[in-house]
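Marked as duplicate of an earlier ticket. Keeping the data here for the record.
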Amino acid sequence: MKDRGAGIFACHKHAGIIQYVLFAILLVCAGVIFVRPLGPRAYLDEIERIIRAIKDALDKAREEHILNDRKFALEIQLQLTQAQERMSFLRLKLLRHYGPTRSTREYFQIFGELSSEVRAFRRDVQRTQLLLLTQIEEGKRGRHVEEANELRALSQASNSSVGQPTMF
């Protein structure tokens, strides 16, 4: 009977160790989940989406004739092309450092030189996107102001002609 009690007591000793091991595994998994979006691959994927959005917005603005400033449109196109070239260079650098798939070394380098370079590049691309979107909204606003002025002029002209007899 004593042996049985000692066995249960020994099991409880190991239960505490197992809890700590499970807790450590849980912390590591949570760390990986929270660090993953901070890695250079995640940032490069986001940059690629932003570049695509810039290109789509630029094409749509050209189709709708919102961007009247040709020099500005060409400057944005140049920045877009340079961003694509830089993104390609950074992807190549990432492949050379870490290989084609995510690696544990990549997780430990989230504050390294390559990650810092990618984050700075992301800020540059976001600035370009903001500049383009601001210019597009100003163009849309200008178009709406023109339409409102034309409608006011038509409204005033129709109000002044209501009182006058019309000749056919």
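See parent ticket for discussion. Residues 1-36 form one domain.
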